[in-house]
Amino acid sequence: MTDILESRPAVAVSRGKPRARRRGRARRSLQGYLFLLGAVLCFALFSWYPMVREFIMAFQRTKRGRTTWVGWDNLHRIMADPAFWQAWRNTVTFTVLALILGFAVPFFVAVLLNEFRHGQAYLRILVFLPVMLPQVASALLFRYFYDPKYGLFNQILHFFQLPGSAWLSSKDTALLSVVIAATWMNMGSATLIYLAALQGIPGELYEAAELDGAGLWRRIWHVTIPQTRMILSLMLLLQVVATMQMFTEAYMLTGGSGPQGSTLTVVYLIYNYAFNFNNFGSAAALGVVMLLVLGAFSGVYLWLERRVKEA
Amino acid sequence: MSAPARSLISPAQLSKWRGKIIYWTLFWLTVVVFTLVFIGPLYWMVTGGFKSTQEVIQTPPTLFPHHPQTSAYSTAWKRLNMAQLLFNTLYYAGGALLLQLIFGVAAAYALSKLRPIMGNVVLGLMLATLMVPAAVLVIPQYVTVVDVPIVHVNLLNSPWAIWLPSVANAFNIFLLKRFFDSIPEELVQAAQIDGAGPLRTLWSIILPISRPILGVVSIFAVIGVWKDFLWPLLTMQDPAKQTLNVGVNNLSIGVQQDVLIAGLTIASIPAIVFFLLFQRSIMAGLTSGALKG
Q1: How close, in Å, is residue B34 to chain A by CA atoms?
Q2: Could you read off the pLDDT of A97-114 as tens digits, one per residue?
Q3: Which of B203, B77, B265 is nearest to A136 (CA)?
Q4: Contact (CB<8Å) B107/A36
Q5: According to CATH, what is the number of the domain A74-310?
Q6: Burial of A114 by CB count in 10 Å (0-12 exposed, 13-18 middle, 19+ buried)?
Q7: What is the pLDDT of residue B109?
Q8: ipTM computed for the complex
Q9: Residue ranges per structural domain of chain A
């Protein structure tokens, strides 16, 4: 049917046809937009419009119900707030720590699990279980474990004759404690994604490497990592962007800012400006800064990645 | 899994006795460590709920509850308002799932098969939202929900505040569209020649073959609402309307440790049951969605 239509020479099409076809296309477009209506409305109201509004709000201030333009004032104000720099320092530290734990650990767990010929299903379920728990359960459970007096962690340390730690209640260890809990809560998804990537590596590559006399580490370095590089590099980017936006874990574990602001993150500061100080202008301005920082980071990262790939 | 695929360690190496010893030591070590690390905390949580207020904060701690009692569980159920919170969370997740399926499938179908003029621009604008960090948008989104443009209604404390924004999920629409793209055009044309309109084609041709992707998208939709914290924290301030995450966290300050631990157990049970029931599709969906997406 379609063959006949397509093989007919263009000249042979009568003059009435194109108009009819155009009308058909217009009708299909109309139907198309009817189907799109619900989703487009939701995007417009709750995604596209807020995105524009974010930039508008960053330059406005609302006082006693009156909204005025204040130019760069909101930005100057948040930069003058010592909490701004502390929040960025904490967020970057958190991201670096979360990468050391949350990026390396799942990869090596996945490499290990992939070698097992038994019980893989069980181990996978174990690793993924915390991801499914309601965050409130995992976070408050960790808060119980972290208690300096009766918490499980210090009890275990005391059992081995080691000194306990103040965990969440000291400004030196609070952030690290949040990272540990967050890694436990979230590492399952990354592990499963790496496992799936590892299973796509053709076995011949390992065989060839072995014939060339490559030992275990060299096989990991020269086969496993290059073969999973695409997914590793994508996950690294996604993980940085996600951990920079950390809020829930710190909010539940330390109430947000923690001892002497040691777990104060940028997103918590945004929340604090808006909902504790009722200052939506500053919150939006900080949001714009966050957006630009993450955007710049992703841009540089993708550019570097392409450079490395070409080299 | 059919014939064991060759991985890092060769089968030859594993069949030697030295390989075997290393393999089995490592295997059992991993099983024990993983069980301790991932099940251990849950064991502590479940048994903690059976301990008395004294025992739960006692040093050194007890491995088993000495005088098991269920009073913490019943107190937690009442004090933490568990029935209400569980119902709310399921209600929000169910509604979000339904709306996302209806509007997401319709949109993906339009973009994939009806291809209206400027359809690619719409798709591009949708995908662009994936680039914007969610936490940044929360402030203007909140202001929008308080006073929705044009209609001027306040959606705070209404389930619509969770349901409607959940439809604006570009990732799910993208997954659906990509699946619909793989359905041969001839099938759709054949249906049209038989006189089926777009709705009929969608319902009788597209949807029946799209079961796998519908499953993946449904799981993402439910987990998305189930795990969200910041958004319901802002939009559901009325304690009777809160989700499990927000409600338990808010009430956690004023209750005794044993009651709280029991409450956490109750909060976890539905998630664990849901996971064990659907673990195959959840884990497969996660990896396929992430790898190809």
Answers
A1: 7
A2: 998 888 889 999 999 999
A3: B265
A4: yes
A5: 1.10.3720.10
A6: buried
A7: 94
A8: 0.88
A9: 13-48, 74-310
